[in-house]
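Hi all, a correction to my earlier message: I attached the wrong file for Muramidase. Here's the right sequence:
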Amino acid sequence: MRLAIFASLALAATALTACTSGSTSDVLELRPSAEVVSSINVSQNDQEDMLEPLSLEEQNPYPAPMAEQQQAQTQKPVEMAALRPENPARQIAPQATHKRSKIYSESFRDAHPIKFHPARHPSKFEVHGVDVSHWQSKIDWKTLRTQGANFAFIKATEGGKHVDRLFKHNWDEAKKAGIPRGAYHFMYWCRNAEEQANWFIRHVPKEKGALPPVLDVEWHGNRKTCPGKISKKRVLAKMEVWSRMIERHYGQKPIIYTAPDFYDDNLKGQFKDHSFWLRSVAEHPKMRYPNQDFAFWQYSGTGLSKGVSTKIDLNVFNGTEESWHRWLQGRVAK
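and the right structure:
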């Protein structure tokens, strides 16, 4: 706004009036962005099985600053590679100052064991963990920890109206057992992404020491009113919206969990600044996901363990015990 010295009060008043009425650009700059508006005014539609048109947020998942960041990431692959969180074993990080939790050797069994190549066997990894939902029923978390559950990912939400009925119990009990844990959301492709992000935020506490939130992206099969697959464009737009909203709320970039078929259809070369958690129950991820770095590997869906009465998913962290503690130092909620 320019200042001027006027000879009379009348002229000053006239100038002030003209300045006020002509400052539309200043007023427009103060309006909330479409991102803020859409994250507050979410749809209340409970028809989960309807394929919605892309929202404004999903049509343009990159606001101007984010678009510049994406361009910078594309233009500077060398710098990004040095910082990639999905390279935990090679990531440069300060020595951990937090209290280190004890790492237990795994004592898991498998109802249907796979003969992995000896050099790429899950047992070669130093830090093992689990992921659970209500399907595991009540879990004795203290016992499970001693069997090798050094971390846990716990199902929290699905779509925009489902909460896992044992989420709060598992969330609280895993913490009491001293297990670093994070919550995951199962993305429903026929539901608005902003609404799903807000649903997760509503039910998952922002808590010091928590692992990053996880976005579980898979094809969830054909349903009568929701197609089994949507376009890659829609997939990436929804994922970007959910990820950005979650990172803004929790201060942590989400981890992406996926399976081979979904990855092949949508995620090759995408989300390079995110850590990946890969399902690969027949062979090492490097054989199934060539050139894809990863932080976690889900190697079995038929695990057996003391402390759990059902089969359980088994995972490993892609790094050493030392790099695990460094990864925690940089990635847990502060």
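Sorry for the mix-up. The beta strands are 109-110, 128-132, 152-158, 162-163, 181-186, 214-217, 255-258, 276-279, 296-304, 312-317.
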